[in-house]
Design goal:
With 319 residues, the protein is an alpha/beta fold. It is built from nine helices and nine strands. The protein has a single domain, classed as Arginase, Chain A (3-Layer(aba) Sandwich), CATH 3.40.800.20. Strands 1-4-9-8-5-6-7 form a seven-stranded parallel beta sheet, sandwiched between helices. Strands 2-3 form a two-stranded antiparallel sheet. The radius of gyration is 18 Å and the shape is globular. The mean pLDDT is 97.
Length: 319
């Protein structure tokens, strides 16, 4: 897995904002990739009216919603972010983009996100006859992505996120509707959850992804569940990102990833590189002492999240 990056993503100027150019500048000098525009793919997920509203908002700058800032070249950065995600889906790459995308809905922006990069790339694959497993390990629910595929049995969407954090929702009872019932997995993690509970959740439910038999694994790679991140209260160490990459590599052939959150610039690049090292079967670059959860958090996971979710999903999968 190689990084796909271009300086166009620095042109999305958000000023003094958690989702700022400093996130990508923290990686230092990166080799630039020639990326095609993804504008032609926007209609796979987003309405024409919404796309036009983004163009208009970028001309004047300001806020698309309470959290999402746009500036003169934000539209350009966003469509090339989509292009990078599509490119990653073709090359098993890591699209190091901004703005992020997993809170983006067909008709609205949300949570720093304009266009839903991972959803667009995944829908393109579905339209090509592929089955796609989306693993969203950003510490926030990817509510936009979940919405896009909630009724589909061609996409398995699995999110691990902090309970009661932005954007809300994502409870274990939300398992899909219609043909998609059983194809959405929401792992709610209580504030303070560490590596032990996180990896237990991955082990408990990875069997569903294997039974789904995806042609492609799409990763919404957010790093705000790290213990140093200031937008959430989860406690992952850098080692966990390596382990997730390693688990995916051992089970699946075609894997691509798109950057979502991760706002502590001292640790973002380390998390990304550890994940890529895990995918590539290389030595982990950055080690941290693994974190443990309090007994109360462990019990909450076992007696509410895991037990309840297994009961809900058992009609659809062998658990």
């Amino acid at each position: 897995m190689d990084i796909i990056y271009n300086k166009i993503f620095l042109e999305h100027n958000t000023g003094n904002h958690p989702e700022s150019i400093q996130r990508l500048l923290s990686f230092g000098e990166l080799e630039e990739t020639e990326i095609p525009s993804g504008e032609e793919y926007l209609g796979l997920i987003h309405s024409r009216e919404y796309v036009d509203s983004v163009k208009a908002a970028c001309k004047v700058g300001g806020y698309m919603d309470a959290d999402t800032v746009v500036s003169a070249r934000s539209y350009e950065a966003a469509i090339y972010g989509v292009g990078a995600a599509v490119m990653a889906s073709e090359t098993n790459g890591f699209a190091l983009v901004r703005p992020p995308g997993h809170h983006g809905f067909p008709n609205k922006s949300s949570g720093f996100c304009i266009f839903n990069n991972i959803a667009i790339a995944s829908k393109r694959l579905v339209d090509m006859g592929k089955r796609v497993f989306i693993l969203d390990f950003d510490g926030h629910l990817g509510d936009g992505t979940e919405h896009c595929f909630y009724n589909s049995d061609k996409v398995l969407y699995w999110s691990l996120h902090q309970s009661h954090a932005f954007p809300g929702g994502g409870d274990v009872v939300e398992i899909g509707e219609g043909a998609g019932k059983g194809y959405t997995i929401n792992i709610t993690l209580f504030a303070g959850a560490g590596d032990d509970i996180y990896m237990r959740a991955v082990d408990d439910f990875m069997t569903i992804a294997e039974q789904f038999k995806p042609d492609v694994v799409a990763v919404s790679a957010g790093f705000d569940a790290h213990q140093s991140d200031f937008l959430l209260d989860l406690r992952l160490s850098l080692d966990t990102y390596y382990k997730i990459g390693k688990i995916l590599r051992e089970r699946f052939d075609n894997i691509f990833a798109v950057l979502e959150g991760g706002y502590n610039t001292d640790f973002l690049s380390k998390g990304v590189y550890n994940f890529i090292d895990g995918i590539n079967g290389e030595k982990m670059r950055f080690r941290e002492k693994e974190t443990e959860s309090k007994i109360s958090i462990i019990e909450q996971y076992h007696h509410y999240t895991a037990q309840h979710l297994k009961e809900l999903l058992s009609p659809y999968w062998s658990l």
